Amino acid sequence: MAAANHPLRSLIFLLLLPLSLTTTTIYHFGSGQQYRALAQTVGLPPLRAIHLGSLGSSFLMGFSAWLVWAEGGLRGPSDALPLYIAQVSLSLVFHPLVLRIGAAYLGLVFCLLYFGTTVGCYERFRRANLVAGGLVTLCLAWVAFLTYVNFKLVLI
User: Fold this and answer.
1) N or C: lower Cβ tally within 10 Å for the chain?
2) Where are its TM segments located (predicted)?
């Protein structure tokens, strides 16, 4: 019975940790008044859409990490775990840096780093579990969209 609970506990941990970090970041830093004003005039996506997309991406990365963990890919000499930690950390930077502070140029650098670590996660996760790699592909699309939004902010 204890062995059957272990995968469930790890699933809950790997889902709730990034989701709770993302939710906390959105709650504290996700409502930038500058972005709201720009979004209405320039045609940027509303904050609600960015928040929901970030939560969805967080959920998918957490689930992908669990799939890889279940295959043994996050343990041992693989660099999947450091890449995953870097990816989650960089995902938390967008809201305070771009939406709250308005540092679009610096945000673009972080978006490119975020995209690079997500590509690294995709490559490592795909080797361990094809489904996890497919889920990370959706996260790559989300990061590309955030990079586009940030690039649009730089051009304004």
Assistant:
1) N
2) 49-69, 104-122, 129-151
